[in-house]
Automatic annotation (TrEMBL):
Record bears the keyword Transmembrane helix: yes
Keyword list, A-Z: Membrane, Transmembrane, Transmembrane helix
Stretches that traverse the bilayer: 26-45, 52-72, 78-98, 148-169
Name of the protein: DUF5317 domain-containing protein
Pfam families: DUF5317
């Protein structure tokens, strides 16, 4: 979940927007709180503590809901619609692969084995919808195959993360445009 935030910051910088004004608004802090909790959960997983893993779907849902604050405050209605389309596409893709694999989401860790995030026995310990992928996994290209070392994502997961990127980038853009207009007004 941190990837879309970092990408939004990088893309905003490339486009010439300042990121610092974003942190002057209270509306970003609920999202940052969830990212901090997410990082804590990731550290717990790295340490083999899977206690709170069963709550991740609820956590992801609440995390995405925190973006409503930015959507309302900065009137990002069009961005929210586009982002929501990506959430729907991602959810449909994930549901298709889960249905094709008897209610399970196959995971193909590679880099995560090297970083220690995934261990061969972790899928047995966790006992949720994720299973270790194999040659019998169906629709492999839609399963969790994008391994970044601390998380293994599917194409559907990436689509869902696009929502966060769109909202955050457009928030930075609106804040910068508003600041520019206010600065120009003060000069006159």
């Amino acid at each position: 979940m941190i990837e879309p935030i970092l990408l939004a910051f990088i893309f905003a910088k490339i486009k010439g927007y300042k990121i610092k004004p974003l942190f002057k608004t209270w509306a970003i802090y609920p999202i940052l709180t969830f990212i901090l909790i997410y990082l804590i959960l990731e550290v717990m997983i790295f340490n083999g503590n899977y206690t709170f893993l069963k709550y991740t779907s609820t956590f992801h849902y609440l995390y995405l809901l925190t973006f409503i604050i930015l959507i309302i405050k900065y009137k990002l209605n069009f961005s929210a619609i586009i982002g929501s389309i990506f959430i729907i596409i991602g959810s449909v893709l994930n549901n298709i692969v889960i249905a094709a694999n008897n209610g399970k989401m196959p995971v193909f860790p590679t880099l995560s084995y090297l970083t220690g995030y995934a261990k061969p026995d972790s899928f047995i310990k966790v006992n949720d919808i994720h299973i270790l992928g194999s040659g019998v996994s169906k629709l492999k290209f839609l399963t969790d195959i994008v391994d970044v070392g601390y998380c293994v994502m599917s194409i559907g997961d990436i689509c869902i993360r696009v929502f966060a990127f769109i909202i955050l980038f457009n928030t930075i853009k609106v804040i910068n445009q508003t600041k520019k207009i206010m600065d120009e007004t003060l000069k006159e």
